[in-house]
Amino acid sequence: MTRAAHPADEPPHSLTDTREMFDAYLDYYRAVVLRKLDGLSEAELRTSRLPSGWTPLELLRHLTFVERRWLRWGFLGEPVDAPWGDRGPDDRWQVPDDLPATEVRARFEEQCAWSRAAIAGVPLERRARTGGRFATEADAPALGWILFHLLQEYARHAGQLDVVRELADGAVGE
Fold it and tell me: Which Pfam families does UniProt cross-reference here (predicted)?
């Protein structure tokens, strides 16, 4: 059994500002997800090792849409084309066969950069705008809730990728 490359260290334990922790941990888990995919061939990225059937590339595309749904369509209330575009007709994650893995990764990285810039300096207590994902102010969560939700989603999916990577080539995550 081989060891995967050691991911970058967690954000420093000296952080005390909640906003800085959210931003730092989101970036940390974004990078962890990408590192867990590094070294897998296009074929491995498109191969499922799990009974549920999702592939590592589908998960990466899903996370791109998750950020888009929660921050662009959700928090900012902007209209977006196909907010659920990561799902196929059977409601499962999907990646078109003609969409190369390098393009899926590039779109993920672009979305993450957009997300960082769009919420930079925005207070955690600011509520999401209505008109996009949220119809009423009562439905609209605060940015802090959204960032916490994104953080738990990344952490959960990074753990799932640990299992997938170990099944694919024996690399063990940390």
Answer: MST
